Each structure stands twice: as C-alpha cells, then as structure tokens.
Amino acid sequence: MAEYGFVTYTAGGSEGFKLSTRITKKVLDVVVGANDSGTLRFDIPDNLHVAITVVQLDGDSNMRHYPHKVTFDVGARVVSYSPSVTYDSNLDRFPEWCKPARSRSAIIIYAFVPG
Amino acid sequence: MTYGFEVTINNTQVKLDDQYRNIVLLGKKSVWLTTGYREVSFSEFAHTNMTVAIRHLGFGISFLGYIFSGGRRVGVRLYVSGSGTANFAVLVPFYTLPEEGCGIILYDENGTQKFHSDHTYMDVKNTGYISSGGMATQQDMYILCNPQSPSITFSSSGGSTTYPVTAMVPYQVCNTAYKYETVCSYKSPTYQCSYVFGQGYVCGFSGGGYSCESKLVSYQSCTTLYRMEIVGYRTDSWAEVRCTKTLGLVWQGTDGYLSQSSVTLNNNQVVDSSVVYGSHLYYQQLGFPPPYYAVVNTPGNATSFSAPIITTRAIV
Which domain holds residue B71? Predict the structure, then answer.
C-alpha cells in the first residue's frame, strides 16, 4: 500500500498523528425538539462522502422512545425531519412499556473520505 | 478565507483547515456489561456534541440513544444481550491542546488553534448495512452508528360464544290412584197414615235416616319435581389487545464481525382486554381496529432508521 500524507512523532519517538488515512468532519450536529419538524441545510467539504445518523436523546427503561424520521437529499444538501411516532388515543390506556413515545433527537452528519 | 493545507488521498482532497470541525477523541471508558437495559454515564466527558463509538466483542448491543441533561450528552442508554467488556470512545469536535515541542499546530487568522497533531482524530473505516447480511470489520473497530429503535406491534382479536342458559324448572307428575271412601246417603222418612179401628186415621213418619257404604273411588295423585332445562341462550363477547416489543441488536463477534440479531422483550402480552356478557359488542368495546394494528411508522428508504453502520478506526 502506497504511503502518502505525513506523520508526526511525539517527543518520545512514538508515532503521533498520521495523515495516511482519513479525517472525519462533523458537518451537522443539531438537537431538535420531540414534536418539531422541519428542514436543515448542510454543507459538505469537497468530494467527501457523508453518513447521517439520528440519535434519540430521551428515553427510559421501558425502551419505547423513537427519534425523528429523517430523510436526506445529499445532492440538495437538505435533511427533512419529523416525529416518527403518531399520537393515537387508542394507546392511552395501555401500560407505559408499550406506549411509543417521541424523543428529542440529535441529527448528526459526518463527512469522510471515501474508502 | 481558508487557512491550512490539504493532502490528496484516493484522489480526494482532504483539507486540514479551519472550515470544518474535525472530530477528535476526548476520552475512553471500559465498562463490564450484562444482559438487560443499561445506562452508562459519561458525566466526566459531558459535552454538547458528544459522539460515542462502541466496541463490544462477543456480545450484542442495541444503542438506544444518549442521556441528555442540561443541553449536554452525559451518557448512553443500551440494551445488552450477553455479557462482556464494552469499550467506549467519546468523540467531540476539535478542542485546543497545549502547545508542545513536537508535531504540527494550525491556527486561523485570529490565532485560534484549528489543528493539533497530538489529537487522535476520528477516522471512518467503513460504512454499510448489516440488515441484509453481516459486515466484516477488525477486532479493533468501534461502531459509531448503531441506529436501533424498538419494534412495538399490536394485534387485536375478539370473538363471541353463544351457549344455553339452564335453570331448575318445576313440573308435576300425576298418577291415578284409588281409595275407599265411605259414601253416606240420607233417606228422608216417609209420612204415612193408616186407619186404626177405634182411632181413626193415625199418621206419622216412619223409616228414613242415614245409610253409609264403602266405595272404591279413583283420584289424581300429583307430585312437584324439578329438573334442569334450557331456558334461553346467552352470547358473551370478548376482545383483547396484545403487544410485542422487539429490539434490534448489533452483534459484534470476537473477530469483529458485525451481524444483526434481535431480542423479543415482551411477546404477545395482553395490554388491554374486555369481556361483555350478553351482547355482541366485541371490537367496538376496545375501539381497536381488528385484526392487526401496528403503531410505529415503518421507515422508508433513506430514513434515519435505515442509516448505515459506521465503524471507526481503532482508537488507542
């Protein structure tokens, strides 16, 4: 495998930073409210690939929370988000463990060099 | 204006500049985990933009999200299947390190540090989906994105049963019986006159009186008895809703191989029920549409739920 980039060494002589692989950049990290919906625009560094993840920020031991449903258009560089749980009054009298619940979400987009 | 430098890797220009927030390692933590719902605190690393990558060789984890407090991420919620040591890497956007004698430091025009070679930078190793098969990685890979949400499904059912209603009903049984009865009759005395010489006619009553005789007579002998009889029909109806909850898991083999599995936590458990006697109101009684009802929206293509698994370079 060809070597490229550069390497730095620590004072002790061991290898420090090595730019022969890839650096990952966080281009979006936004917290949205549990009942929020909308769109977000993001920018991507040149020629990098992106990966999106949505992580819930609320929860409990019942494990019934859901983050937002997010669709993304890399070409337009837009993500759209909306709550993924629709309220249903039929669920009101059910025990808590089986009631799906909305959660605040962290919408995170990573940009990285394609492998 | 952009400051920095760039390196071409795989025909892609990678900029080490001040435009974007390169992700760096803030700290590490190892925790012994066993099966069940678990919360792992990272309060010592609490951060607004914390990202946690996990390595869990030999067991499965469902990553249920962050513990969010005071606008900062302070821990993670997990469901663990199996047991073992989980290694966590806490990643955050670039932060300033002290100047030291070795390496490279990059500043912007304001003198703010933007790159420091002493940082351990996050490096995406691979991305992919494991839903249609496994994903080969190495033992030293951390999983950055493990999007899992529970599957909560409901099924409703109902029915009715009609059956006879019985009761003790009285009835009579009668027989013809015979018995002797004394029958008495009364005969009135007769008034008669007769001529008696020297006295003329002498009149008076004679004869008559009661006379009885014994006769065999028939009669009805009746007894009241009770017996079980069908007196009508009753329809009882019932309805119930059952819930099943399943968690998706990412299983990381001891060789680092990633595969998908799941665990059913609550299998077809009754969450609501109703019984109505004497009517046909099943289904309507619970207001739950038959015969099957799934609450959770099924994610489509390119939604967060189907995000790819992302592994990162070993962070040592």
Answer: 4-144+308-312
